[in-house]
Structure formats: structure tokens, C-alpha cells
Amino acid sequence: MSTSSPAIIHGPGYVVRPLRLDDATALSEFSEDERYWRFLAEGPRTPDQVAYFVARAVALHADPENGEVWWAVEDPDTHGVIGTANLKRIGDAADRNGSVGCTLAPQAQGQGLGTTLGWALIALAFETFHLHRVECTCAVENEV
């Protein structure tokens, strides 16, 4: 992915910005909650595991050529972190295929924000990163 990631994306009910090391504290507040993980393949994370994830994500974000970019999702009113968003390259860079994803804190779920954010990430993948194909996965049992 040769285009550097945008600094900030504003949308209805969210702000997407690069993850920062200090976001680990906010993410830890809900990353041990089963409701956060109920539709994901992974399980709850300890604060140390969250800190490791954030440090890795910050390093990946610094070099978009690596094929993986992570952002924090913020509530635009409180500026609190309510989730994460990502774009990952699939296969060879020349193929320009990728996947997008997001996770939201329990208090941000059930309001349509995941759908809205998903469409924004798809647009970002095509318009900013110039991908040719984008894959998205959602849990069919996620009706909230």
C-alpha cells in the first residue's frame, strides 16, 4: 500500500485517526469485556496484551508499505477511544487487494456505527489506497 494513511477521517458518529501508544489504556478498559469479542475469533486481552498490540499497530502504521494499517476510532463528542479500524493487504502488493475491519466498544455497538464505519473504510481502501478489490467479513449472528 503505497499511499500513506490519512491522518484523520471524520464521519457521522466517529473520528478515525492513527493509533497512539497512550490509546492502550482506553482500549484496555473494554478489551477484557466478552461483549467486545463475541463476534471475533480472538478472545479477551489483558492490559499487557493490549499494550503490545497498540505498540505493534503504531509501528505498522508508521510504514504503510508493510501492508497493514491500524487506526483508533474516537467518539467525536467525548474524544474517547471506542474501537479500532484496520486495512490489510491480501497477497502480493502488485495485486492491490485488501481487507478492512473494525471493532467497537460495547457502548458503541448496536447503533449502526459499525456499518457506517465499514463503508467509510471501503471508500478509503479504494479512493486513498487505490486498491482494486476489498474483502469484508461480518458475523451473520451480529444483529445489534
Helix proportion range: 25-40%
β-sheet strand percentage = 25-35%
Report the uncertain regions. Answer: none
Helix/strand order, N-terminal first: EEHHHEEEHE
Q: Strand order, biggest sheet?
A: 1-2-3-4-5-6
Q: Structural class from helices and strands?
A: alpha+beta
Total strands: the figure is 6
Largest sheet: 6 strands, mixed
Radius of gyration, Cα only, in angstroms? 14 Å
Q: What's the shape?
A: globular
Distance between the termini: 32 Å
| Count of DSSP-assigned helices | 4
Mean pLDDT: 85
What does this structure look like?
This protein is of the alpha+beta class. Helices cover 30% and strands 25% of the residues. The chain has four helices and six strands, in the order ββαααβββαβ. A six-stranded mixed sheet has the order 1-2-3-4-5-6, with helices on both faces. It is globular, with a radius of gyration of 14 Å. It starts with 8 loop residues before the first strand and ends in a 9-residue tail after the last strand. The relative contact order is 0.20.
